[in-house]
Design a protein that fits this description.
The chain has 386 residues and is mostly beta strands. It is built from no helices and 28 strands. The strands form seven sheets. The chain has a four-stranded antiparallel β-sheet, with no helix packed on it. A four-stranded antiparallel β-sheet has the order 4-5-6-7, with no helix packed on it. Strands 8-9-10-11 form a four-stranded antiparallel β-sheet, with no helix packed on it. β13 and β14 form a beta hairpin. 57% of the residues are buried.
């Protein structure tokens, strides 16, 4: 494998989203260098929808938690690349009188950060759990977990969503009891917006699509297969655009791929465990992210309740384990580095908190800053870039 990771560009990560709940300001002494982030939540306790908060980028303190928009189960969010629009799924199984969830477009007020609903569309599949936006901002993609399907929507001039323009129902199964049918868990564009990669936990495949007149069509090659029982969940690209990574929920592994930008093909380089040697408890994984420097990769463990860190070899592109940091809560569902790469925020679905970590830029290991937000069922974190 000849891929090199030269010229680490400190590229900004595509926005991710963390879901929180509860409105309590924390931490008194904060500086002026604050960055806004949004949090998606499950609204089954104190949470009412999407929240906003601030990260002090000098101290690593979290503060100013506030409700941004009331919305049912906004479990994943995405930002439009140039418009003040946030897109959110509503992870439900009934919408509009059918077995489906919803995807919403919300306009952000630049002064207050509050979000106003512009439009909602059905996802034509139950429990949508992931949403993404094409790099050009012209289309929004959604993955339906229980429905086992993916969908596409055109973006209107005002950032709202038009009617669904593309829909694909996945088919198949695999070896685990949770793999009796398809479970699309995410859909991500490549950095150029030419190809779209849908990680399906139920069929152990990363399905590859292209857009043709707003419709999703199978690419050739049509998929990358993973080992039976892997359960691919989330997928992300390296800043150099030549590497990609899938985190496998059921096997607690991460698979590294070489990405062919011309054909869309994925070639497996390596699969590594997210768990420390000797761990024999129950565990599933959730999120995978590349550090903005391109030097490190992180994955979250639910059960071991940790963030696993790996160094990305600049010559071979292989992953070397660096260590595990306790995530500071139960079931770290989602986490995100801030755009500078100095901090990571981890959202815990089952302990109702978000924890801030400082990144060691030499080793890649995380160190808790001592700051956290107490919130209900946070499941996704996304930073504003302006």
């Amino acid at each position: 494998m000849t891929t090199l990771l030269a010229d680490y560009s400190f590229a900004i990560l595509a926005p991710v989203i963390a879901c929180l709940a509860l409105s309590i300001p924390v931490n008194d002494a904060v500086g002026d260098d604050s960055m806004t982030f949004y949090l998606g939540t499950y609204t089954r306790g104190d949470s009412q929808g999407i929240y906003q908060a601030q990260l002090d980028t000098a101290s690593g303190k979290l503060h100013s938690l506030d409700l941004a928009a009331e919305l049912e189960n906004p479990s994943f969010l995405a930002l439009h690349p140039s418009k003040p629009i946030v897109y959110a799924v509503s992870e439900v199984n009934q919408f509009g009188g059918e077995s489906a969830g919803a995807v919403s477009a919300l306009r952000r007020d630049p002064a207050s950060g509050r979000l106003t609903l512009l439009a909602q569309q059905t996802t034509k599949g139950a429990h949508p759990c992931h949403v993404s936006v094409t790099p050009c901002g012209r289309f929004v993609m959604v993955a339906n977990y229980s429905g086992g399907s993916v969908a596409c929507y055109p973006v209107k001039e005002d950032g709202s969503l038009g009617s669904m323009s593309g829909f694909v129902q996945h088919e198949g199964s695999s070896v685990s009891p949770r793999q009796k049918g398809p479970h699309a868990h995410s859909i991500n564009p490549d950095p150029a917006g030419r190809f779209f990669y849908a990680a399906d936990l139920g069929i152990d495949k990363i399905l590859i699509y292209r857009l043709d007149g707003g419709k999703l069509v199978a690419n050739q090659p049509a998929f990358a297969a993973l080992a039976p029982g892997s359960g691919p969940r989330h997928f992300t690209f390296h800043p150099n655009k030549r590497l990609a990574y899938a985190i496998n929920e059921l096997a607690s592994t991460i698979t590294a791929f070489e990405h062919n930008a011309e054909t869309g093909a994925l070639t497996e380089i390596q699969t590594v465990s997210t768990l420390p040697e000797g761990f024999d408890g129950q565990n599933t994984t959730a999120e995978v992210r590349v550090h903005p420097s391109g030097k490190f990769l992180y994955g979250s463990n639910r059960g071991h309740d940790s963030i696993a860190a790996f160094r990305i070899d600049s010559k071979t592109a292989k992953l070397t384990p660096v260590g595990h940091t306790p995530s500071g809560g139960k079931s770290p569902r989602n986490f995100a580095p801030d755009p500078s790469g100095r901090f990571v925020l981890a959202a815990h679905q089952n302990s109702d908190n978000v924890v801030a970590f400082r990144v060691d830029r030499e080793s890649g290991l995380l160190e808790a800053t001592g700051s956290e937000l107490k919130v209900g069922s946070p499941v996704c974190v996304i930073f504003l870039l302006d």
